[in-house]
Amino acid sequence: MTSVLSRQRELEVLRVLLYEHRDRCRTQLRLLNQPPPDGDGGTEQPALAALTRRRLRDLEHALDSFERGRYGVCTACTADIRIDHLLRQPAASRCPGCADADHRHRM
């Protein structure tokens, strides 16, 4: 029972982390969507904005999974995703084994 309570507490901490990451992405997008002060659009800004939008989408999906009680559960094998993996990749929807297998399959 203690390990279940411990995992729930750790997931609650991760939920706060997800909200912080989401808010940071929203701020980054607002800044990236502003015209640069020198008028030079640069080639990196659209790429950074696209990457930030994708990360924001992943974070919002993770928060939705959390609200549905599915956060931290692999969408492929239904095993619990290790907390240390979620700390490195808070928006992860697959365990490292399934993510690696999916990556190898796509190559």
TrEMBL record:
Entry-linked Gene3D superfamilies: DksA, coiled-coil domain
Zn finger region (dksA C4-type): 74-98
PROSITE patterns tied to this protein: ZF_DKSA_2 (PS51128)
Protein name (database record): DksA C4-type domain-containing protein
Organism: Dactylosporangium siamense
Source taxonomy: Bacteria, Bacillati, Actinomycetota, Actinomycetes, Micromonosporales
